[in-house]
Amino acid sequence: MTQKIIDIHPHIISPDTKAYPYNPLGGIRSDWSAERPFTFEQYVEEMEAAGVSQAAMVHSSTTYGYDNSYAADSVCRDPERFVGVYSVDIAAPDAVATIEKWRRRGMAGLRLFGAGSTVQTDGRWMIAPETYAVWEHMAEIDMTVAIQTTSIGLPVVEEILERFPEVSVILDHLGRPDLTDGAPYAKAAPLWKLARFGNLFLKVTPRTFDLSEKSPATPESFFAKLVAEYGADRLAWGSNFPANNGSLKELVAQGHRCFAALSEADRAEIWAGTAERLYPQLVVATLDKAANA
Predict the structure, then answer these.
(1) Sign of the dihedral defined by the CA atoms of residues 17, 19, 23, 29, in that order
(2) Where are the transmembrane segments (predicted)?
């Protein structure tokens, strides 16, 4: 039986800088977006070659800031296969209205960028009082919030999980844990500490695969530990393509290698099952397509 695969972390960049001008968060554009600017059409070719069925397209904040236009224009071209994960200034007075505007253009998830290659903050702005209306709205509409951060921001993520337990939060790249000590991965204690929050999900990407393949870490020991701590139904795969080097097919192959020791049921959850619960619009689109066939 062919494994269904949903990608919840691809990025796309348009060559048309007049229609889609660059305006990166923090004023610094990410290296990958300049070096490997794949368009929506190129991503579709990559996903078909890799056997990826659907995707939650993640707007590139390090290219376009809060202007989600290119991702929105792209996913609306094929809503049976794509939804969007967009970025919004959640402290703005009209943030809820802005989210509703983007929802009408394929938005199925919100993404907050706290720390990464171009920006390093603890992300405390994510939980300032002026953002509470957005978090409450996320709970009301059952929309997943993805958070991009590193260890510097995990205390803030913990506060968010405690304050807003009805909001599903997915942590990009697992928050980039330290796996350099190998099993049982004591240095990744901040990640294991957060497992007690049932509303926290983890996005497993090639960044995680790379860390797990550097000795003394091994994919067999790390992913077994990850599933034991969180459960496969709280883990979802995202390609991080093209920010990670390699074709999408190669990144999928790396995932198959790293997940090889997991059960078939666990692999099915990570490749697609969890994604369908985080972004149920993908399931609705599939059912609608079947009904109209």
Answers:
(1) negative
(2) none
For residue 203, pLDDT beyond 90: yes
Q: Which helix (H) or strand (E) holds 56?
A: strand 54-58
- What are the two backbone dihedrals, phi and then psi, of residue 167, each rounded to the nearest 5 degrees? -100, 130
3-state secondary structure of 11: coil
β-bridge pairing 82-86 and 54-58: parallel
Residue 171, both tokens: 């942590």
The string of pLDDT tens digits covering residues 18-56 is 999 999 988 888 889 989 999 999 999 999 999 999 999
- Which among 56, 122, 64, 106 is positioned nearest to 89, based on CA atoms? 64
What is the DSSP annotation of 93-134?
A: TTHHHHHHHHHTTTEEEEEEE-BSSS-B---GGGGSGGGHHH
